[in-house]
Amino acid sequence: MELDKTDRKILALIQQDASMSASEIAEQVNLSQPPCWRRIKRLEEAGFIQKRAGILNRKQLGLDMVIYTEVKLSANGRQAVNEFQQHIQSFPEVTECYLMMGRIDFLLRIVTKDVESYEKFYRDHLSLIPDIQELNSTVAMSEVKYTTELPLHLV
Known about the structure:
With about 160 residues, the chain is of the alpha+beta class. About 35% of the residues lie in helices and about 20% in strands. It has a 4-stranded antiparallel sheet with strand order 2-3-1-4. A hairpin with a 6-residue loop joins β2 (about 95-100) and β3. α2 crosses α3 (about 35-45). The longest helix is centred in the first third of the chain and has 13 residues, at about 35-45.
């Protein structure tokens, strides 16, 4: 499916505020509500919109620490990678996990309340995953930029 300028504007508006109604979006992109709603449905069905969600303020919730953890597995076979991925899926503290190319196998973004809660997560969960050779964690001191909005101008 090819995206036109109006589709990209609709996607940008939904990224900024997923609670906007189809009629509010239609007004901003100069369409009437029915064709705008059809475009939104088409974008959802084509997979451009995975889901609509609210973005919570982690600091307001007391989740003050963001830790990036590099993981190197002792075995690089498909089974070790799959088992690690299955374990990681079950941990709500891990908000992002990427399979990497290069000197490490995975990069994790972990959100916790404080150092003590990270230590508990590390001891009770992360360090118990089989086939981990090395874990290196780095604490983010401050958040310079955080966004969930994708650069639609590149599409």
